[in-house]
Specification:
Blueprint lengths: L6 H12 L12 H5 L7 E6 L3 H10 L3 E7 L3 H9 L9 E3 L3 H4 L6 E4 L6 H10 L3 E4 L7 H13 L5 E3 L7 H12 L6 E7 L20 H5 L31 H11 L11 E3 L3 E2 L4 E2 L2 E2 L10 E7 L5 E5 L5 E6 L3 E4 L4 E2 L1 H4 L9 H7 L8 H11 L7 H20 L2 E5 L4 E3 L2 H4 L17
Parallel strand pairs: 1-2, 1-4, 2-3, 4-5, 5-6, 7-13
Antiparallel strand pairs: 7-14, 8-12, 8-17, 9-12, 10-11, 12-13, 14-15, 15-16, 17-18
């Protein structure tokens, strides 16, 4: 990028390239080249949700552009991010309403790192506002939201949408495991065990007035209006089905993603066809899939959900196994986690000379291997789908949500992956979507 080119002119050119996912790179790109670009050429970024995870992501984004705005419904978080030396540097504008970020024409990229139940609404509105979007996992709250965000991304295909599933950028462990499976080096895969740990147990918690720095009504968003409980908010939100899916969508969004990718069941119309949730326990009593207490954590904390594929492969999503993924094939088995990749095929290097740079580039959709956010910003400038694309992630979220629904109801539910609907169980099918509070509806893009 030359210093004489305007940022707006460059963006217009790059957007034309983005339309074709197989586009030839527009120009050679490196992080160092971007870091040395003129101020007029650097991408401009707005960060929505700047709590602990959001601040970590924002600091990463700052390497690739200038953060002009930060936003959080907790004013303390917004102030911290504004003044953080690696984020706002005292110069970014701080907001409590994300719409103030989206309405700014000088922002090219929006990072969404809010609680899960806010992801899709903000992400779709960001796409509609002409922004490229980074969104943390898990992307969605419901099966319906999967369809809504996928359709929005199809409609706005000139914008890059990227998911924070960083395990897709771990060459030595997860990419190696995916390559081993896809090349058939383990034989036919018969069983996959996805260890995601158990959720927290806690409560009853006190209902108190929200702290003055927090806009509690805005934090709740589409979720039902309830009294403030400190343990409903910030990190602990994930232990309430009202805002998340517990471990099914927390670690599940990472490990189920790798499992489906490896067996090439991460494309539309694929995935498990049955989910057995009979072996699942919750911290409180449930009736018809809903908790009977509103002052305790309620997501499943002890479970082994068995997911059946039409091919005969079984995937067990459980809280009792070691955190990671165990692939068992007719020739061998491997275990992979963030800390290791192990098994006889690894010890004996069954993939020697079969895990090359070309293999990694194939998994990276034709892009060179590099860090996770590097891939996002490369795709903004060169075109093409990122390694963590919305379409494969929707398939992961189908499996995550269906596992949670089966666990909540304590029975087997059946899924038609082509029609994308729960079959033969009217009550279970009722969990496909949720009715948002008035004023917090999610846009429906056609």
């Amino acid at each position: 990028m030359t210093s004489s080119s305007s940022r707006r002119g460059f963006m217009k050119q790059s957007l034309g390239v983005l339309a074709a996912s197989s586009a030839v790179p527009y120009f050679a790109w490196t992080r160092s080249a971007l870091a040395g670009a003129s101020a007029n050429d650097r991408l401009r970024i707005g960060c929505v949700g700047v709590g602990s995870m959001g601040q970590g992501d924002a600091a990463d984004h700052q390497r690739f552009g200038d953060i002009l705005a930060v936003c959080d419904v907790d004013a303390n978080h917004a102030a911290q991010a504004k003044n953080h030396e690696r984020i706002g540097q005292g110069r970014a504008d701080a907001y409590g309403d994300y719409r103030r970020v989206l309405e700014r024409n000088d922002i090219d990229v929006v990072s969404v790192v809010t609680p899960d139940h806010w992801h899709v609404k903000i992400a779709i509105e960001a796409l509609q506002a002409g922004k490229h979007v980074f969104c943390q996992k898990p992307l969605t709250l419901t099966l319906e939201e999967n369809q809504l965000i996928r359709q929005a991304c199809r409609k706005h295909a000139d914008r890059v949408f990227f998911i924070g599933t960083q395990q897709r950028s771990d060459r030595d462990r997860f990419l190696r495991a995916v390559n081993l499976v896809q090349k058939g080096l383990l034989g036919e895969i018969r069983k996959i065990t996805v260890g995601i740990n158990g959720g927290d147990v806690g409560g009853p918690f006190a209902k108190v007035a929200p702290p003055p720095e927090l806009d509690w009504d805005q934090w709740l968003g589409q979720a039902p209006r309830v009294d403030y409980i400190k343990e409903r908010c910030h990190y602990q939100f994930r232990w309430w089905y009202e805002y998340s899916g517990g471990k099914f969508t927390d670690w599940g969004a990472h490990h189920i993603d790798i499992a489906l990718w490896a067996i090439q069941q991460d494309q539309e119309g694929t995935g498990p066809v049955a989910f057995d949730g009979r072996d699942a326990k919750h911290p409180v009593e449930f009736r018809d899939g809903y908790p009977l207490q509103d002052d305790c954590y309620n997501t499943a904390h002890d479970f082994a959900v068995r997911c059946q594929f039409a091919s005969g492969i079984e995937m067990v999503v459980d809280s009792r196994s070691e955190n990671g993924i165990l692939f068992e094939g007719t020739k061998g088995r491997i275990f992979v986690s963030r800390g290791k990749i192990a098994g006889k095929p690894i010890e004996e290097e069954w993939d020697k000379d079969q895990f090359t740079d070309a293999d990694v580039a194939r998994l990276y959709k034709g892009k060179p291997y590099e860090g996770h956010k590097e891939n996002f910003y490369r795709c903004i400038r060169e075109g093409g789908l990122p390694v963590s694309d919305v379409y494969s992630h929707v398939q992961t979220m189908h499996a995550c949500h269906l596992s949670a629904i089966a666990a909540r109801l304590g029975r087997v539910i059946h899924w038609d992956p082509q029609a994308e609907r729960i079959t033969g169980d009217e009550q279970a099918a009722g969990f496909f979507a949720r009715t948002p509070r008035p004023g917090f509806e999610i846009p429906r893009v056609v």
